[in-house]
Amino acid sequence: MRMIISGGGTGGHIYPAITIAKEVAKLAKNSEILFVGTKHGLEADIVPKEGFNFATIEVRGLERRLSWQNVRTIISTIGSVWSSAKIIKDFKPDVVIGTGGYVCGPVLLAASLLKIPTLIQEQNVIPGITNKILARFVDKIAVGYAEAERCFGRYKPQQIVFTGNPIRPEVMSATRQEGQLALQLDANKLTLLVVGGSRGARSINNAMLDVYQHFAGSQRIQILHVTGQNEYNSIVGNIKQSGIDISNAGNIIIKPYLYNMPLALGAADLAVFRAGAVGLAELTARGIPAILIPYPYAAENHQEFNARALEKQGAAVVIADKELTGAKLTKTIETLLNNPAMLSDMAKKSRELGRPQAAEAIARLALGLIKPQRKR
Ligand SMILES: CC(=O)N[C@H]1[C@@H](OP(=O)(O)OP(=O)(O)OC[C@H]2O[C@@H](n3ccc(=O)[nH]c3=O)[C@H](O)[C@@H]2O)O[C@H](CO)[C@@H](O)[C@@H]1O
């Protein structure tokens, strides 16, 4: 069985691709998998580390308005469909999967034109523009949220399947002790995990300054804060300037990026997160209560919809980015930590939303598309 999988730009598109690919490899014997991304996306860093063969195409994203830039992008997209078709003809996949991000547009389009079975996976409540366009061409759409079905509503209903979002198996298997050990956390303190999505979030990073003023040196709580690669130096500088000595506080760990996020999730008692769909799938699979601050500029404000889906079920508290202040974040964290009954109720409700079997369901759906004469 040969499969091409494509998705890129941010962790929210890349990790689903990696997870589905690994699940397909587990289910189908002798599988050969090729990942297609761009040279510049986060995938160029993450995918080879995960041991997949990685091919690249040149492709640009469309702006969400009429512009000359878009005309140029469309012309260059024709070139990327051509290079995708070449990769597909050389690799001869039995099925092609896309997990979003503009790189998978030309790849899936080329596959569909070459009559190769295709599947896309949409992580968000409101689908991204690439997947909306691709929906017209592909055989199956696996959606992370039931609500997303409505947005793809005018396509054939049998084309759309609600699977949930795929999460890495290690997210489920990591234990609290393993997480504490790997991240050098204190087993006697509660752990607050702060992550602004795969690229970090400046407004959360800034609000954290007050949180540090309040909790630095606390014997009750420790903070693991992932700033995003680009933000790391400035946030560490700001903390220093505000007079907090991280190395002496004994309860603050700051990282630019975590390659072992499943272990951090294993140790977390409470999370402060953006509302990227995969991050939320991971939180709910583990049942981690969360304070969510949706990124307000996400396309069609989709993070807000993702976050409200959890809030509606009582699994999370939402703070709008424009209302986020250090004082408000500190108070919300304090309120939750001082209320164990509320925390455990949120944890239970969060777990009820989790769909740890999603990756397997998507992999089976993809394998089911392979034409019988091509099954090997
Ligand atoms: C700004 C924007 O438009 N972001 C989108 C992007 O988010 P983003 O890439 O931030 O997405 P998610 O929160 O969905 O997923 C992040 C993934 O990266 C992992 N991770 C993150 C940080 C880290 O240090 N280490 C690590 O491994 C997380 O565990 C998770 O698996 O894709 C998501 C899924 O389509 C969307 O819902 C988000 O709205």
CATH-defined architecture of the largest domain = 3-Layer(aba) Sandwich
Given the structure, what is the number of helices? 17
Q: What percent of residues are in strands? A: 15-25%
Small-molecule binders here are:
uridine-diphosphate-N-acetylglucosamine
Helix-strand makeup class: alpha/beta
Order of helices and strands: EHEHEHEHEHEHEHHEHEHHEHEHEHEHHH
Shape: globular
Q: What composes the largest sheet?
A: 7 strands, parallel
CATH topology of the largest domain: Rossmann fold
Low-confidence stretches: none
CATH level 4 superfamily of the largest domain: Glycogen Phosphorylase B
Amount of helix: 40-55%
CATH class descriptor of the largest domain: Alpha Beta
Task: Tally the structural domains.
Answer: 2
Structure commentary:
This protein has 376 residues and is of the alpha/beta class. The chain has 2 domains: 2-167 and 357-374, Glycogen Phosphorylase B (Rossmann fold, 3-Layer(aba) Sandwich); 170-353, Glycogen Phosphorylase B (Rossmann fold). The chain has helices at residues 11-27, 43-49, 68-91, 104-113, 129-134, 148-151, 169-173, 176-182, 202-215, 232-241, 246-249, 261-267, 277-286, 302-312, 326-337, 340-353, 358-368, and strands at 2-6, 32-37, 53-56, 95-98, 118-122, 140-143, 160-162, 190-195, 221-226, 252-255, 270-273, 290-292, 316-318. Strand 6, helix 6 (148-151) and strand 7 (160-162) form a beta-alpha-beta unit. It starts with a strand and ends in an 8-residue tail after the last helix. The model has no long low-confidence stretch (mean pLDDT 93). Bound molecules: uridine-diphosphate-N-acetylglucosamine. Uridine-diphosphate-N-acetylglucosamine is lined by residues 10-13, 15, 100, 123-124, 195, 197-198, 226, 257-258, 261, 274, 276-279, 282, 295, 298, 302-303, 306.
